[in-house]
Design goal:
The protein has ten helices and nine strands. Helix 6 runs parallel beside helix 10. The longest helix is centred in the C-terminal third of the chain and has 24 residues. The protein is globular.
């Protein structure tokens, strides 16, 4: 490995292609993200990321917009359905268009998805495992995910330190290698958390990612960060619907009126996010406590280099 250094990449970041919000009341009014792929790319590079990838929900459309740049690679966040209809989110990295289709075809069969990913040598990361925002889950769901993944997200820039710590402990016991990503849905949060790999090129970074030579770094989330991002998304939703209504797009005037009807509730936003943040803390504590007592499995390989200051190590 020549000219090796700690290369950095945010392995969990969204663009406007992530689709509609999953909250039942708002899914017809608000998107998950309003950031253009080019804006995400420029922001990540300006904040020190050597490589850029998008992990939009179940699509690589945004990633293909950046595909011409030599410092990018295709990724996505796959929404996997487990028995009982519950969901888990898996980050998959350095994929092709054909592999995207293969993963999406198997997202309702976790065992088949893991087998396909292993055959294709696709790195698979269990994202925010101790977050309630992807829905309630049974105790058996996470071991199912841990058994087939190669990585676990232990530094998520939107999750609390408690949630990230629980993921770190569970990942160590499951023998998974740790990585990090901002989980940014706004430009303000891009590159808040990221992954380091000792490498001298894009190819070496991706080889290190596949080998698990990864170090999560950056900051965990907070109540203030959550509130700021939700407020930013709310403002973006109003602006987007106003633009669409002005352009005469069908149905958007109605959506704009619906958003305006909800505007008087905006002062309550800090209370809503406080309740959400508290619920996340309780969920992480309850499920994390169960996994902290599971037998540990050996790591796939020892770390080959020392982390930078402030990085988290499994």
């Amino acid at each position: 490995m020549s000219d090796a250094r700690l290369m950095q990449c945010d392995l969990h970041v969204h663009s406007r292609h992530s689709g509609a919000a999953t909250v039942p009341l708002l899914r017809h009014l608000v998107r998950e993200c309003y950031s253009e792929p080019a804006e995400v790319y420029a922001t990540a590079r300006a904040r020190g990321m050597d490589l850029v990838t998008l992990t939009d929900h179940d699509t690589i459309v945004g990633g293909l917009e950046l595909a011409g740049a030599p410092d990018t690679f295709l990724s996505e966040e796959v929404t996997c359905v487990v028995p009982g209809g519950r969901e888990l989110h898996l980050g998959v990295f350095d994929i092709t268009e054909a592999q995207h289709e293969g993963l999406q075809a198997r997202r309702r069969d976790l065992e088949a998805l893991f087998a396909y990913a292993a055959e294709e040598r696709i790195p698979v990361c269990v994202n925010h495992p101790f977050s309630a925002l992807t829905g309630r889950r049974e105790e058996s769901d996470l071991p199912l995910a841990f058994g087939g993944a190669t990585l676990i997200e232990t530094r998520n820039g939107m999750m609390s330190a408690r949630s990230n710590d629980q993921a770190r402990v569970a990942g160590r016991r499951a023998g998974l290698d740790a990585c990090g990503g901002s989980d940014a849905h706004t430009l303000a949060s891009v590159a808040r958390a990221f992954t380091c790999v000792s490498a001298g090129s894009r190819a070496e970074f991706l080889a290190g990612l596949r080998a698990g030579r990864t170090i999560p770094a950056g900051r965990s989330g907070s109540y203030a960060r959550l509130t700021a991002d939700v407020a930013s998304l709310s403002i973006s939703a109003f602006r987007d619907q106003a633009r669409r209504a002005a352009d005469g797009e069908a149905g958007d005037a109605v959506r704009l009126l619906a958003l305006l009807a909800l505007a008087p509730l905006l002062p309550l936003l800090p209370l809503v996010t406080a309740a959400t943040y508290a619920d996340e803390q309780v969920f992480a504590w309850r499920f994390g406590r169960r996994f902290s007592r599971t037998p540990a499995r050996p790591r796939r390989q020892p770390p080959l280099f020392r982390p930078p200051a402030g990085a988290a190590v499994q």
